[in-house]
Write a structure and sequence with these properties.
Structural class: alpha/beta
Helix content: 25-40%
Number of strands: 11
Number of helices: 6
Shape: globular
Strand content: 25-35%
Number of domains: 1
Length: 225
């Protein structure tokens, strides 16, 4: 008798690093976050009877290992050099982490400066739309609500973890408290920090997490028969 093979979707192990830079302007500081995205396959499987396959269990975490807010008044060339110096530190120097920047307020010229320095980041412009759209190979327009809801979802599951030793971890927690959800008369949800508060650390983590979970090359499952 011929054995019937079962359709399996094994979890693929992932251990990668991402660096997110929320670029500030004259009154808003630039914030940098470093995230380690890890997926660990487990020995157990779950059957989806309706769909007819087995999926391997896994654990997944997004660990923010480093947070920093750059001083106001630091020039963009100095900020770029700070990123270069950060990427030259272990373990990042050997891992070629994915770099993502928020160029919403500063525009393409500053992003072009990153390219000229050889960094070639993924670029995000934060919008008020409803869906993320890709504009060229490494440029994305992503709604702010999508960024924040993704951050909230992974925070609530415990998958997003902030290292207590990160220098600006306490500041990030305060920013999250200050971040407010507002529903317009048309039923659209918007997010913003309270008046006088910053949201640069929140957005730095949010764009990094979005790139890890929703951007290109994010699948950690492989179909096998």
């Amino acid at each position: 008798m011929t054995a019937i093979s079962r359709r399996e979707i094994p979890a693929r192990a992932v251990n990668r690093w991402l660096v997110g830079v929320d670029l500030g302007q004259s009154t808003d500081p630039t914030a940098i976050s470093v995230m380690n995205h890890r997926v660990v396959p487990l020995d157990t499987w779950k059957e989806n009877i309706k769909a007819g396959y087995w999926r391997q269990d896994r654990t997944e975490h997004f660990d923010v290992r480093h947070l920093e807010r750059l001083p106001l008044g630091m020039s963009y060339p100095q900020q770029i050099q700070r990123v270069i110096n950060l990427l030259a530190r272990p373990p990042l120097d050997a891992l070629k982490p994915k770099l993502v920047i928020d160029e919403t307020g500063v525009g393409r010229p500053v992003g072009d400066m990153f390219d000229a320095a050889g960094l070639h980041p993924n670029r995000i412009t934060i919008t008020a739309g409803l869906e993320a759209t890709q504009h060229g190979g490494s440029t994305w327009h992503v709604p702010k609500g999508l960024l924040i809801s993704n951050l909230e979802a992974h925070s609530h599951t415990g998958e997003l973890r902030i290292a207590a030793a990160a220098s600006d971890a306490a500041a990030l927690k305060e920013e999250l408290k200050d971040f407010k959800r507002k529903i317009s008369e048309a039923g659209r949800t918007t997010y913003a920090a309270r008046v006088g508060a910053h949201d640069d650390l929140v957005l730095s983590v949010a764009i990094t997490l979005w790139m890890a979970t929703q951007g290109p090359e994010t699948s950690s499952w492989e179909l096998r028969v």
